[in-house]
What we know:
The protein is mainly β. Helix content is 7%, strand content 63%. The chain has a twelve-stranded antiparallel barrel with strand order 1-2-3-4-5-6-7-8-9-10-11-13. The longest helix is centred in the N-terminal third of the chain and has 19 residues, at 5-23.
Amino acid sequence: MPIDAKAVRTVIVCLSTLLLNGVHAEGIDTEHIFAFMIGSDVGNVGEREFQSQTTGNFSKSGGRYRAIGQEFELEFVPVRNFRIEMGTTFASHDINGVPDFWDRRQLAWQGLSLDLRYRFLDRETAPLGLTVAVETHADRVDETTAAIVRNYGTGITLALDRELIPNFVVAALNLSYQPEWTRLVGTGAAEQESTIGAAFGVMAQMRPGFLVGGEARYLRKYEGIGLEAFAGEALFVGPTAYFQLSERSRLTLAWSFQAWGHSAQSGPALDLVNFERQQARMVFGVNF
């Protein structure tokens, strides 16, 4: 059957139009597309958002372990390239028969947090995006053991990202350092610890407002804020999905499992002393 050149041209034009409209209609905003990581975008001046972030940590080395943190946050961008986020968190724990943990079943207010982000490089004018985030928190409930404590911590994250395929595939890298100071209210015992990490994520925009991909995070924990004594390490991997629900609302879902780990107290396999076997996160946000 002879090929109709005019029909072929028509099909090519139609496909090109669909691709342009479906993939290149809007650039990818990386501010909220990742769950356990952050992108370099910080929003536009004047933006205000309310965000609900639910994080679940499940399974230790034995017994039953479930810790769920529910954080409510307000975000706003007062000036170009600078974002402020204030939050408060409630924690739910269900712990029974876990080695070295007290059995607890409770729901309590955990604490407050402040997250400041400044973007030094914008992908529109530079080869990649670069943002530094500094997050501080003060907690009255330990997020892992559910014990009553006085906990203060700071997280410093260097976030880089770049569109590998314009408006279609974006990759991000996070480097982090998190020192923490904790004092048990009942005994007065004090401890210091720190965690360093590297995370890599890739997301592909299947259609405007819908992205799927995955995140891989390597975490290494130490006793002392100066990385004095090695405590354990873990590699988490898992899928992530982002949905633009409407012009003003969004939803990010992610699940990660510990693919490999090693504790200073045990041999190689998994580190279920310092980390959990599975982690999940759901983030809902709305502009107002």
